[in-house]
Amino acid sequence: MNQIQLGQSELRVTPICLGTMTFGEQVDEATAHAILDRSLERGVNFLDTAEMYSVPARAETYGHTETILGNWFAKRPGAREKIVLASKVAGPARGMNWVRNGSTDLTGAEIIGACNDSLKRLQTDVIDLYQIHWPARHVPAFGNVYFDPEKDLPVAPIHEQLDAMATLVKAGKIRAIGLSNETPYGVHEFVRLAEQHGLPRVATVQNPYCLINRTVENGLDETMYRLGVSLLAYSPLGFGLLTGKYDASGTTGPDAPANARIGRYESVRKQRWGRHEALVAARRYNALAREHGLTPTQLALAFCYTKWQVASTIIGVTTVAQLDEDLDAWGTTLSPEVLAAVDAIRWEIRDPAL
User: Fold this and answer.
1) Any catalytic annotation for residue 53?
2) How crowded is residue 290: how many other Cβ atoms within 10 Å of its Cβ?
C-alpha cells in the first residue's frame, strides 16, 4: 500500500486505517494488543481512536480505548514512531453526562482540556491528527435526516475552536486537525476562517461512507475535492450489515447472531444501521457480491478502497482473523458490470443508513 497525504498537511498514511472503538468493550486488552501488533506487521501505519471510546459509549468505558492504546505504546518501544495517531474530542454530550459533565457545547477551553486528557491516556506527547467528533452546532447526524433551525442553539463559534487547535499546534501537542460527521457548510466555514485568520487548516473529514450510506456523494465530495480536504471513510461494512452476517436471520434485533455487535446494543439499533431498510439494501449488495464470486466483505471494502473520494478507509475488527480478511481485500478490483449493478441498486434504494 502506498502512503497518501492527508489534505494539505504533512501527514502521510496508509489507505487503510485501523479503527479501535471496539477495544475495551467487545475486545479485551490482550486481544486488542494482538490486533495492533498484526496491523503494524502488515504495514498499516494509521490508527484512529477517540476520547469517548469504546462504543457503545458508557461511563464505565469512557477513555478505555485510548488507555489500551497507551499501554500498547508503552509495551512496544518504537511503535509510536511508526504510527500516525488520530483521536477525537467529543462534541456536545448528547446525553452522555460523563463527558465534560454533560456539556452542551464544545468551547476552546474544553478542546484543550480534552486533548491534554487524551495525551495522558495515550501515553504520548503528540496526537498527529486531532478531530472534532461531531459539530457543536446542530446538524443532522447519527440517523437524523433534517436540519431544524429551531434546534440551532448558541454554541462556541468555529473561530474559537480553531484558536484552541492553534494553541495545541503551537504547543506541539497536535500536528494537524480534522472534523467528523460534518456537513459541506461546516467544512467550508472551517477552511474559510482558517485561511482568513492564519489558523490550522482542516486536513480531513471522517464521515460514514459505504454501500448503504453514500451521502458523501451528495455534495460533500465536491466540497472536499475543491478545498483539498481528505475523506476518512468510517463504517465501510455498514456496522456489519455488509458482511452478510445478518442475511440469514433477516434482523438486526435481538434475534440477530449472538456475536454480532449491532444485535447486542439497543442504542445502536435505534440509529441508522438498525433500520429495516438498511438491512434490505445490504442483503441486495451481499447477494450481488456472491453472484460475482466475491464475499460481501470483499465487495463492500473494495468499493471504498477504490473510490476516488476516499483517502483512507477505517476498518474496525474484533479479531486478528477479521483484520486479515479486511486487509486481504485490498487489491480487489470491481468490474464495470459490478459497479453498474451497485449504482442500479442505489438508484432504487438510495441511502437507507444515512
Assistant:
1) yes
2) 13
